[in-house]
Each structure stands twice: as structure tokens, then as C-alpha cells.
Amino acid sequence: MELSNVSDTSIKKPNRIDGRRLRSERTKQLIIEAYLALADAFSPRVPTAAEIAEKAGYSVRSVFERFPDIRALQIAAVDYAMAQVTALAPSGEFEGDRQARLNAQVRARAQVCERWLPLWRSLIINQGDSAELKDRIRVARERYMARLEVVYQPELAAVSELERRQLLIALEAMTDLESWARMRQFFELPFDDACIAWIQAIDRLLPQSSTSA
Amino acid sequence: MSASAPLKPPRIDGRRLRSERTKQLIIEAYLALLRENSLSPMPTAADIAERAGYSVRSIFERFPDLHTLRVAAADYGLAHAAALAPARDVDADRPTRIKSQVETRAGTCERGVALWRALTLNVDEDDALKARLHIARTRTIDRIEIMYRPELSVLPEIERRNMLIALEALTEMESWARMREMHGLSFAESCALWIRAIDRMLPPTPL
Asked: What is the tally of structural domains in chain B?
């Protein structure tokens, strides 16, 4: 193709970076991060706009220019946290024999629980009648169950559809964030002992895989 | 027994009895409101007064604040759960014991989840609630221990403790609530799920 045949309008220009928009997005993210840090520290109390603004280094007005109210900020923060959990999830859970997968899954879950428990509690306690927050709580649980289904696919493949569903519900209940909190706070188990309790329970609950049976 | 000390029937203080009855009706009104909207952890004094058929002043004459009412409701709930859920079939065979424990626990969860939520959502406010939640959990664990004594007896100490922790987590109030609310299971389906899971987890029953 000759260059003379190419019209001016079809020449691709590099995307212009809108600096103002970029700064605004960065501010939004810093506000979300400030909210998460404070919600973690104050859990289950929701931080005030003044506290969030001070932590982020902006004015209260800046906070409300980007989020119409604290509930909207809460929702954005939950989305951010959920994306982080997904992005940081290790891939080792899916590999190896039953024992290796059990160990990896439990340790990964335990770390999520240690990291996110205060925020999860804050979310549960402050969900009120917010359909958006309820929806995110449901999605978080469904994502976790979907992950369990992949990690323990060899074992779950050995049972009927109904039993598979029952096992996933039972696994989710046993390894819920509050179940972890009880082991650590009520039963006062150290991290490693709590992991062992979960590993033993899951190992007992899961059937033998169809290949090892 | 000397004739100078005839036994008199104890005098019933009618005013005190009425006041206790009013207190109980207020607690029951609070619990009924919680059951109707379990996500509202503290109905207002006006709501409770209207439901109980008393004035707001009557409520605050008996409970200095709504938190005290919540603590009284927790005591009422604990007593109620103990009365309605005695241990049954303790010496029966394994399937009967599992079924009995699950159905009793399910009934407690079904009746008690609204109050449970109200307590757990407010637990950081006061140690009085924390103590009651602690009692409730300890009773649940004690019950599991009684019902599955033969199976638990074959496990080493630490494994027995871990098994109790796992069974408590599995049959926790919110676990029940999720089966019913999030997964849409019926009462019977939820019981079947717990029965199957417990049967899988418990070691074989010793002969």
C-alpha cells in the first residue's frame, strides 16, 4: 500500500492521556485505600468522612466529590478488596496430590482470613439493607465455593451432583472467616494449629478421588 | 414440728409478679420484631412498646437502656434453648444420634438465628453479650461431645478437639442461615446436608 493512498483520518494517533482524569482516579484510589486501612483498624465501626479525608490527605469535600456518600465508598472499597483477593490468590492450590492441595488451599484461605477478617466483619455488621453490599457478600462466598470446587475437583468428581453441592456448602461453612476467627480467638489456636484443624476436617469430609479409590 | 411454727404458704407479691410478666412481654415483643426483620439488630423503643402493648416509659422503667434489654433477651434465649432442646437419644445407635442432634440443633438455629444476629452484631459494645455468646457456644460444643462420645473416644486428644471445632463450625447458626437463605434449602434438605457431612467426618463407631 502506498502512503499517498492512506487518508489523514485513518492514521492512528497515540491515545492521549487525560492527566486530570488520571489524577482524579488516583485520588479515588487513595481514598479507597485510606478507607480500607481505617475500616480494618476500627472494625466493625465505619470510619467517618473526616477520618478518611485526613488519612488520605484530602479534604472532606474531595471525598464527597468522588463518592456521593459513605455507602458508595464502602461499595467501591469492597470491590477493590475483592479484586485484590482474586489477584493475590496463589495458583499452587490447584496442583499436586490430595495432601498437597489440602495444605495449599487451607494455608491460602487462612491467610485471606487473617488479612481480611476485620473488614469482612465490618461489612457483615454494616451491610444494613444495602442490596449492593449484600450482593457482594454473596459473590464473595460464591467465588470461594467455585475455587473449592476447582481445587477439590478430583475428589468431588467421585460423587453425585447433589452430594457435590452438599459438600461444597459444608466446606464453605467450615472454612468461613468467622470459623477461622473462632479458632484463633475463642479456642486460642496458633495459626499453624488452626490450619491443622481445618486440614483434618476437610480430609475427613472429602471422599477419596475417583482415581485413588 | 412445734405448733407455734405452722407453715404458711409463701406470699405472692402480685405487683412484682405483674412487673415480671411485663418484662417478659417486652422481651418477647423485642424477639418477635427481630424475627420479622433479622437485619435490624435493635428495633426502636417505640416499636417494642407498640408491639408489647405498653408505653415507651414502661420499657425504660424496666430496662434502663435498650442494651440492657438485649442482654435480658439473650438470657431469655439461652433459657428457652435449654428448655426446648434437651439431649435425646444419647445412647442410641449412630444414625439415630446424628439425626437427633442435627434436628435439635436445626430447631435451635431456626428459632434463634434472629436473636443470635442481634447479639453478634452488637457484641463489641459490652462484655455481658460476649459472656452469653460464650455460654451458647460452650453448650453447643458440650452437646456435640455428649452425642458423639463413642466416636470421639477413639480419637487422640488433639484430634478430638479439632473434630469438635469443625463440627461446631459446620453446625453454627450462620451456617444454618446460609443454607436456608443463600442456598434456598428447605429445613429437611438442610438437615440432610448436616447429617451426611457429620457422618462423613466422624470416625467409625467403636464396636
From this structure: 2
Comparing CB atoms, the residue among B161, B172, B182 nearest residue A141 is: B182
What is the tens place of the pLDDT at every residue in A34-85?
999 999 998 888 999 999 999 999 999 999 999 999 999 999 999 999 998 8
Task: Quote the domain boundaries for residue B41.
Answer: 16-70
Domain identity same for B192 and B137: yes
The answer to whether residues B96 and B38 belong to one domain is no
- Residues 6 or more apart from B144 whose CB is under 8 A from it? B101, B164, B167, B168, B171
d(CA A172, CA A166): 10
Complex ipTM value: 0.84
CA distance B60 to B44: 12
Task: Say what the pTM is.
Answer: 0.84
Q: Which residues of A touch B39 (CB under 8 A)?
A: 127-129
The separation between the first and the last C-alpha atoms of chain A, rounded to the nearest angstrom, is 65
Asked if residue B147 and residue B66 are part of one domain, the reply reads no
